[in-house]
């Protein structure tokens, strides 16, 4: 993401930005070389900092009004209620949850007799939770690097690839989409069954950018593989690595992570809307907060945000879409609807489809497949909306890691997790494509 204080000679030979720094057609980095370069970036000794990392982290968050807290909660109903009180749940155990809460939400916890087990300022928690400082996470793609990678793929595969924007963000950034289709480009309609792979609804979940982005690299490098060639010929594939580029760029804007989740809308007395609480699926009911300072703030209205509206308009304009994955971190889970209510979806055949495809992808990743609301209810979710509105078999992936370091959060696990996460999820994405032509056949598996 940010290339601070790393050896220039190292990146001269193993640059992740090979596509951006030289003519795309001259780049020699294959998919495997690319992943190896990312691992090498993780393993290479960092250039010494001129300041100590811990004080830098403290300084970056010293005035942040949020806390990391652990709260007693043993049921999905209790966890859902905590979300509504403004807690962004990041870790779940059988008896408690941990996550981030704004100081202005804490008084409500006291009046509701919530059992707070521990709490500490986010700045203090971040010092103990960071595994890698941003200067060591240079393998990740920032917004410009992501665009350069996508553009290079389009240039190198112009017969089947097109790159276009589905809309602009609050801060006027384009939301880029890579389309792979042998007979239609750009926004031209297609009757082929469609699949969508999305990343970074949440700003701090940078690994969720790498998985769909590098899946695109893998697909196009293997375009002459018999199975991939069949996908390219018969399917309409869309890859949207960064739905929330404003938030993702803000999270890394100072070289010290800000633990930012939301977009960059300006609210009364606060900033940002949780895009994955802003879709019109039981909007701002269970598991969402109506407090503008909360990390799970649902916004002033359903689809109030340009980013969620762009996804809405993209989906509604393409009735051919059949499957979708929305990548998030962390927890190593594969979730399917409903997320906004505890009941199962009413169509029992579709429920079998969701369960069977989720379990098939779980076998390939080692993740756990489950109904989303079995964890807790969260309304305004993109996958609930995609299924309810358009009949899309939509899944939420919570990527690596599975847990934290001694109770610490792991949005920033370092570059060392990228290679395995990408390789495992390439296989899961291929499994989804195998079921995209006619997803309901999976009910018979």
List the helices and strands and how they pair.
Elements: H1 8-13, H2 18-21, H3 31-43, H4 53-61, E1 66-72, H5 76-84, E2 88-92, E3 96-102, H6 106-111, E4 116-121, H7 122-129, H8 143-156, E5 161-168, E6 174-180, E7 194-198, H9 207-221, H10 226-234, E8 236-240, H11 245-251, E9 266-267, E10 270-271, H12 306-316, E11 321-329, E12 333-336, H13 348-365, E13 368-371, H14 382-390, E14 393-399, H15 418-434
Parallel strand pairs: 7-8, 7-11, 11-14, 12-13
Antiparallel strand pairs: 1-3, 1-4, 2-3, 5-6, 6-8, 9-10, 12-14
Helical content band: 25-40%
Supply the CATH class of the largest domain: Alpha Beta
How many beta-strand segments?
14
Taking all residues together, what is the mean pLDDT? Answer: 86
Q: How much strand?
A: 15-25%
Shape: globular
Question: Would you list the SSEs in sequence order as H and E?
Answer: HHHHEHEEHEHHEEEHHEHEEHEEHEHEH
How many structural units, i.e. domains? Answer: 2
Cα-to-Cα separation, first versus last residue: 41 Å
Structural class: alpha/beta
From the alpha carbons, calculate the radius of gyration and give it in angstroms: 21 Å
CATH architecture tag of the largest domain: 3-Layer(aba) Sandwich
Flag low-confidence runs. Answer: 1-28, 45-55, 404-409
Q: Which oligomeric form is depicted?
A: single chain
CATH H-level name of the largest domain... which superfamily?
Answer: Zn peptidases
CATH topology of the largest domain: Aminopeptidase
Tell me about the biggest sheet?
8 strands, mixed
Number of helices: 15
Query: What is the strand arrangement across the widest sheet?
Result: 5-6-8-7-11-14-12-13
């Amino acid at each position: 993401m940010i290339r601070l204080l790393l050896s220039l000679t190292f990146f001269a030979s193993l640059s992740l930005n090979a596509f951006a720094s030289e003519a795309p057609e001259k780049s020699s980095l294959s998919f495997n070389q690319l992943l190896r370069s990312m691992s090498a970036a993780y393993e290479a000794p960092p250039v010494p900092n001129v300041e100590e990392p811990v004080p830098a982290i403290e300084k970056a968050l010293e005035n942040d009004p949020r806390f990391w807290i652990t709260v007693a909660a043993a049921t999905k109903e209790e966890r859902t209620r905590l979300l509504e009180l403004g807690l962004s749940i990041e870790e779940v155990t059988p008896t408690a949850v941990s996550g981030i809460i704004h100081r202005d939400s804490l008084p409500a916890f006291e009046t509701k007799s919530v059992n707070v087990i521990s709490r500490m300022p986010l700045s203090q928690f971040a010092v103990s939770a960071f595994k890698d400082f941003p200067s060591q996470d240079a393998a990740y793609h920032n917004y410009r690097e992501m665009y350069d990678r996508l553009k290079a793929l389009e240039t190198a595969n112009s017969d089947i690839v097109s790159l276009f924007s589905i809309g602009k963000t609050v801060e006027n950034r384009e939301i880029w989409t890579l389309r792979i289709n042998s007979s239609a480009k750009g926004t031209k309609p297609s009757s082929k069954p469609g699949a969508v792979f999305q990343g970074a609804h949440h700003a701090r979940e940078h690994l969720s950018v790498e998985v769909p982005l590098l899946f695109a690299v893998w697909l196009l490098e293997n375009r002459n593989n018999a199975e991939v060639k069949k996908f390219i010929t018969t399917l309409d594939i869309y890859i949207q690595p960064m739905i929330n580029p404003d938030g993702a760029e803000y999270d890394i804007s100072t070289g010290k992570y800000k633990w930012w989740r939301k977009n960059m809308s300006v609210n009364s007395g606060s900033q940002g809307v949780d895009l994955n609480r802003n879709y019109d699926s039981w909007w701002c009911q269970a598991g969402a907060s109506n407090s503008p300072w909360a990390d799970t703030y649902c916004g002033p209205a359903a689809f109030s945000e340009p980013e969620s509206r762009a996804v809405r308009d993209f989906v509604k304009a393409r009735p051919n879409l059949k499957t979708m994955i929305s990548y998030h971190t962390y927890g190593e889970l594969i979730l399917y609807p409903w997320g906004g209510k505890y009941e199962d979806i009413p169509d029992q055949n579709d429920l079998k489809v969701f369960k069977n495809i989720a379990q098939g992808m779980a076998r390939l990743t080692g993740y756990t497949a489950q109904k989303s609301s079995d964890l807790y209810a969260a309304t305004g979710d993109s996958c609930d909306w995609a299924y309810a509105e358009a009949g899309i078999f939509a899944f939420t992936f919570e990527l690596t890691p599975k847990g934290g370091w001694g109770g610490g959060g792991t949005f920033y696990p370092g570059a060392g997790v990228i290679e395995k996460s990408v390789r495992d999820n390439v296989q899961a994405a291929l499994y989804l494509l195998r079921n995209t032509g006619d997803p309901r056949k999976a009910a018979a598996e």
